[in-house]
Design brief:
This protein is α/β, with parallel strands linked by helices. The protein is 41% helix and 16% strand. The protein has a single domain, classed as Spore Coat Polysaccharide Biosynthesis Protein SpsA, Chain A, CATH 3.90.550. It is built from 14 helices and 12 strands. Helix 8 packs across helix 11 (210-220).
């Protein structure tokens, strides 16, 4: 196997930003198999008309069939009727966009056709030529890890939901390589633990994050070392060279001189797409124009 499928939850408002990711994948990501682009049902027709192979557009209701009902319940619990519900019930039942995109990244596993798949967001960019061997070695996918314990509460939430203890290792966020069978095993674990649909289990047991759930499960079930390698801070993406909050510290050139193959230009900082594109062109990631 020398290909890697990918998945990307996408909203129409992020399409211009996504075009930078698409361009970068076409230029640099040689092992791309099929990229599943998961979109809101209302935006499906529009976005499908703008994308072609290897980008496969799928409405989110096919991956998350209960989404409309759970959105309604979220509005009830957290809208003007919240006073009628116990605090603990409302607090543990959330379906914001952040949780939806994470559920979709897990849910797509049943359609993935490669042993590993790459999770993406619209604000991710592939910055240099990338081969299968750059990310998967002897059947084990590299994982970005952090030196500090940046989000200890996220791991506490994963321990609570899964019933497994964390190892103490700190894992990076999207973009990340997930083992398809490992994600399916995680779904089965949740269904056995909560006696029901794994999506319902997660919606009713927030807060959590998908990457801490995945890695804590893989470690707790004894699978992590079978399918992953600790690649350090630049295994997949470069944390230091990515754009987070301080634009003055952002350096695409630094990432090009490092080991990582991706950077993040985080969209919720408000950085304009044009600024990102100009920085990528100036560094030689894209040709100008």
């Amino acid at each position: 196997m020398s290909t890697i499928d990918a998945c990307l939850p996408l909203l129409a408002r992020d399409f211009e930003r996504f075009k930078l990711l698409r361009r970068s994948l076409e230029l640099h990501f040689e092992p791309l198999g099929r990229c599943w682009v998961i979109v809101a049902d209302a935006e499906y027709a529009t976005l499908r008309s703008q994308l072609s192979s290897p980008f496969e557009v799928v409405p989110e209701s096919e991956i998350f069939p209960e989404i409309a009902r759970y959105r309604m319940l979220h509005r009830l619990f957290h809208g003007r009727f919240r006073r009628f519900f116990p605090f603990h019930a409302a607090g543990r039942f959330k379906l914001t966009g952040w949780y939806i995109q994470q559920l979709l990244k897990f849910g797509i596993a049943s359609r993935i056709e490669t042993p590993f798949y790459l999770t993406l967001d619209a604000d991710v960019v592939c910055i240099k030529p990338t081969t299968y061997a750059d990310l998967v070695r002897d059947g084990r996918a590299l994982v970005t890890t952090e030196q500090g314990d940046i989000h200890p509460r996220w791991y506490e939430h994963a321990e609570r939901v899964l019933g497994y203890a964390r190892s103490g290792r700190n894992f990076g966020v999207t973009p990340s390589l997930l083992h398809r069978e490992g994600v399916l095993a995680l779904q089965a674990h949740l269904e056995a633990r909560f006696v029901g649909n794994w999506r319902a289990a997660l919606v009713r047991n927030t807060p959590w994050t998908e990457y801490t759930l995945y890695h804590t499960f893989m470690e707790g079930s004894g699978q992590w070392d079978l399918f992953h390698l600790d690649g350090g801070t630049e295994a997949v993406y470069d944390t230091e060279a990515s754009f987070w909050w301080d634009k003055d510290d952002w350096s695409v050139a630094r990432a090009l001189n490092g080991k990582a193959h991706f950077i993040i230009a985080q969209s919720n900082t408000g950085i304009p797409v044009e600024v990102v594109q100009s920085a990528l062109e100036a560094a030689g990631v894209f040709e100008r124009g």
